Amino acid sequence: PLWATKRAPAGRGVTSRTAHDYEPSASQFGSFVEAVGKRYDGHYTPAGSSTPLPDVRFWAIWDEPNYGFQLAPQATSKGVEVAPELYRGLVDHGFSALRATGHGHDTILIGDTAPRGANVPGVANGMVPLRFLRALYCVGSNFRELRGSAAAQRDCPTTAGASRRFRAQNPGLFDASGFAAHLYTSGQDSRPNLRDPSNEHDYAGLVDLPNLERTLDRLNATYGSHSHLPIYNTEFGFQTDPPRSQCGCVFLSPATAAFYMNWSEYIEWSNSRVHSDAQYLLYDAPGPPGHLSTESVFSSGLLLFSGAPKADFSAFELPLYLPSTSTRSGRLLEVWGQVRPGPYAKRDTGAAQQVQIQFQSSSGGAWTTLSTPTVTNSAGYFKVPVRFPSSGSVRLLWTYPSGFTFLPLDASPVVTSRTQAIRIG
Description:
alpha/beta
């Protein structure tokens, strides 16, 4: 609310939206988090209710603090970072409030950074995330602690003795459960393995994971911490056309988005440092008033805003990815996938779930099942080697079991993944 922020100056990119995030009060934020922590500790019963509210055990402090519409000002007119200092205060008060209300053993994430930004940030535009992190932890581009006016301007320790106290004074930066990031891809076609054409080294998207990990580790090591913070992808998706979005992003066909979605999740699954994957959105957001009925504010949903599923809906429900799609005759190909509803189906039915790996020859004909692995992973993932008889297509098939609480969107118990072409020979 405006009463918990400072009055934003007119102009310089400040809008009515930015005004609600202009120099927010860290102490007021701490009071808010304390109230939320008490309300959702599993013991609070609201007036008029006979049962307590459920407890919350997973938290993230703020959202995209390196984005001007979420936290302003990002920097002074002379380029001195301001938002990292503001965010440091928000983390300190929010983290302390959660600990004080019995949530110290919960999952508490910091960061939630936007993947890109400007290297010359202003009041309201974004800041490249790794520069934001260096300023947050009070180090320069060489990862050495800031000193003198550079430190003072960013509310950082100005002496070696003060730096030795920095870790103890900022427990949220070092004792958080993990670092949250929005790992959106970029580039001309959004492929998960391609760097942004700008070759900006301070971005933190999916392809930049190694650099993000090194940065977090070096920031911790600067202050004597050996922590290797897990990384949580807390917002991710691909813009599709249809419906074309108003965001100015790269647009993919839903079928290409489905492929990239599965490919991206495989990259995350292969990285032991990454602890979560997220899909944003479920439904495409409709366009603003006055725009075409086919336009969207943000078109990364699995469903059109009409409710109709896009091609990437089943790709999310039943991911499929082959690290290699060609081999010599008689050799094996690795098939990776996930039965996303599988763990919940097992919980409801008590039975381990099986998925069919099916093949169709390039000459056509019926789909045949070549392998039926049992899914034992707690999140429903599997990876198995399969020998395919010839070139053709691969898909997964899974059937919702009787007695499962949840029903598929189209009420059909049989779910198939996207198909993947393979070449054998």
